[in-house]
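In the design runs reported in the main text, the only information available to the sequence generator was the tokenized backbone. The following block is the verbatim input for one such run; it is reproduced so that readers can re-run the procedure and compare outputs position by position.
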């Protein structure tokens, strides 16, 4: 596909590399020539210097030939005008706009067609939802939802003394007492799609497919203490912090926000009267101690600097905070420090890229197309949800007889109100949805791509 990306910041760079990896023809538009030159060298893409919202820049980018425009500049207004202008020049084009200001939410809903928008994304809102999701079950290092929330793939770490240490997967049910499927294991940086003979061991990070209603029972049966989160400290008062605090307060969770900028702290105090807002340096150990860090249930680091978030999270872990969540934009940082107390790592950039990647793949194939896409196991594996229609092969065939490619596992099937954690005798039918986990580097755009 011919894709134009307007804005070459963090999100734009991540999208460019992801879409190039999937074989698309990408043109980037940005007003900064130095940024463009650096990324042309790295990614070998076409580049246009100019204001992405102008007719001239879009014409130079050959918008009339493009199938998709992604507007991801730092200004919401430019992104919206860019999509509107692109739609005027090419009525067939699909448009995606990054819009971060919560004040525009109602207009986007009411004026979506007039603005020429196919999809709007808000990375900070997505990150806040993800973090809130994690805080509901603090024992999980990761949670990804499928089948409209009925199925989840959750991440767990096997620590010393865990009931799962030394257990082969074909004996997992005897301990879990609920039907689940371990769909991926991350061990010493290597990801594996395991079979029943695979033996779990201390230090593994496992990704488990389970029905959402069974998560509480799973935690109980594994001997993991269910930690109720009542007090949360947020370090950094940006948009993610604002969105997250709203959700936590609605759930009657006590929220304390530490923000270094005085004007921003005052604004948050006005916007979030139910929260306690502290004006101060969140990287100061003395300040964190005086504000009761050691007594809080969860610490979420949300400053604008990855390095600062990582250091504060590690300090919180050392102080015994039960649940730590770290926001990073450079995912390699999260991977490097995963075993050093940064807890669950959330990346707004990654969430945004995954959402757009799913949309792009769905555009290419309307049959058997993708309903959801999540990167798991530190990005080394993908979990995809497909709709099973009349074009999908091997319908009605037991899974043990379905020829899937190496590194591929069908981990769940939903059929009407039923959620099925499959075994070898399970089959899928027209109208089902299927969740597929894969470590393969080739990109699956439709369900038939998984078959050998």
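Verbatim output:
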């Amino acid at each position: 596909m011919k894709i134009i990306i307007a804005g070459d910041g963090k999100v734009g760079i991540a999208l460019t590399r992801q879409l190039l990896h999937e074989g698309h023809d990408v043109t980037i538009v940005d007003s900064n020539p130095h940024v463009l030159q650096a990324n042309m060298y790295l990614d070998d893409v076409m580049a246009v210097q100019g204001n992405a919202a102008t007719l001239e820049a879009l014409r130079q980018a050959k918008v009339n030939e493009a199938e998709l425009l992604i507007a991801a500049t730092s200004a919401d207004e430019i992104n919206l005008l860019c999509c509107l202008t692109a739609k005027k020049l090419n009525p067939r084009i699909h448009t995606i706009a990054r819009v971060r200001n919560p004040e525009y939410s109602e207009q986007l809903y009411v004026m979506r067609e007039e603005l020429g928008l196919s999809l709007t994304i808000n990375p900070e809102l997505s990150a806040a939802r993800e973090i809130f999701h994690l805080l509901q079950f603090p024992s999980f290092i990761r949670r990804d939802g499928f089948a409209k929330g009925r199925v989840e793939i959750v991440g767990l770490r096997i620590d010393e003394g865990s009931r799962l240490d030394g257990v082969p997967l074909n004996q997992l049910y005897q301990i879990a007492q609920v039907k689940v499927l371990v769909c991926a294991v991350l061990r010493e940086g290597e990801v594996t799609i395991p079979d029943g003979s695979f033996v779990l061991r201390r230090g593994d990070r496992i990704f488990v497919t389970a029905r959402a209603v069974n998560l509480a029972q799973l935690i109980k049966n594994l001997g993991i203490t269910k930690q109720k989160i009542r007090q949360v400290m947020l370090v950094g008062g940006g948009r993610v912090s604002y969105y997250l605090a709203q959700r936590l307060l609605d759930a009657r969770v006590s929220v304390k926000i530490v923000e270094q900028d005085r004007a921003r702290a005052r604004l948050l105090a006005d916007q979030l009267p139910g929260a306690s807002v502290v004006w101060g340096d969140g990287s100061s150990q003395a300040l964190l101690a005086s504000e009761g860090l050691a007594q809080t249930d969860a610490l979420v680091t949300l400053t604008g600097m990855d390095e600062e978030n990582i250091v504060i999270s590690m300090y919180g872990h050392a102080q015994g905070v039960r649940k730590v969540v770290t926001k990073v934009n450079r995912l390699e940082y999260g991977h490097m420090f995963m075993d050093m107390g940064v807890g669950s790592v959330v990346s707004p950039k990654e969430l945004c890229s995954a959402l757009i990647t799913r949309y792009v793949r769905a555009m290419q194939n309307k049959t058997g197309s993708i309903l959801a896409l999540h990167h798991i196991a530190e990005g080394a594996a993908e979990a995809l949800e497909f709709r099973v229609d009349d074009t999908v092969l091997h319908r009605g065939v037991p899974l043990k007889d379905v020829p899937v490619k190496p590194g591929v596992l069908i981990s769940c099937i939903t059929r009407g109100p039923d959620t099925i954690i499959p075994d070898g005798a399970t089959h899928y039918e027209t109208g089902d949805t299927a969740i597929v986990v894969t470590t393969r580097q080739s990109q699956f755009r439709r369900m038939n791509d998984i078959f050998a």
